[in-house]
Design a protein that fits this description.
Oligomer: single chain
Helix content: 10-25%
Strand order of the largest sheet: 5-8-9-1-2-3-7
CATH architecture: Sandwich
Number of domains: 1
Mean pLDDT: 89
Bound molecules: copper (II) ion, zinc ion
Radius of gyration: 19 Å
Length: 176
């Protein structure tokens, strides 16, 4: 009996230690985004991490309308207001226009379109064209940032938002 509880205590300590280690790592190297729809329903959590001269965005979202949706990093860490207006425009620390197919593009916050399957879920695995979380031209500046998902497809060229329609989901980037 004593040896069993000793084992349990040892294991609990190890699990706690690992959790603390992960928490410490996540505050210094990455950031997370809890994505909510307009009714406040949680669609999933995305992880952002510096990857070369870009930011990689990964995770899984559920509960979206099937189809192809524009998705961007916006410049303010707010999802307040009607249609998530608080998130502001696309994150763009240099004077560029929208989209990889725009000769004057792109914004740092221009991500690839998000494809949502018939089961309403989407696997997110994409990168920004430039920038970093906390280094050169940081996403996590004083007013933070947000991820916004739009109703329709981003054409990758029409300024300022790829003609991707209404903002249907939003999440504030959480990280310091
Ligand atoms: Cu957007
Ligand atoms: Zn843009």
């Amino acid at each position: 009996m004593r040896s069993v509880s000793f084992f349990a205590a040892t294991r609990a300590t190890a699990v706690l230690g690992t959790a603390l280690l992960l928490a410490a790592w996540s505050t210094s190297n990455d950031a997370t985004v809890k994505v909510l729809d307009a009714t406040g329903r949680e669609l999933g959590v995305l992880t952002l991490v510096d990857a070369g001269a870009a930011i990689a965005v990964t995770g899984t979202l559920r509960g979206l309308t099937p189809g192809v949706h524009g998705m961007h990093l916006h410049t303010i860490g707010s999802c307040d207001g009607a249609s998530f207006a608080g998130a502001g425009a696309h994150w763009s620390p240099t004077p560029k226009q929208h989209g990889s197919a725009n000769p004057a593009g792109s914004h740092h916050g221009d991500l690839m379109n998000l494809t949502v399957g018939a089961d309403s879920s989407a696997v997110v695995k994409m990168s920004t064209p430039a920038g970093s979380l906390r280094g050169e031209q940081p996403l996590l500046d004083t007013d933070g940032a947000a991820i916004v998902i739009h109703a329709t497809t981003d054409d990758y060229k029409t300024d300022p938002s790829g003609n991707s329609g209404a903002r249907i989901a939003c999440g504030v980037v959480s990280g310091s």
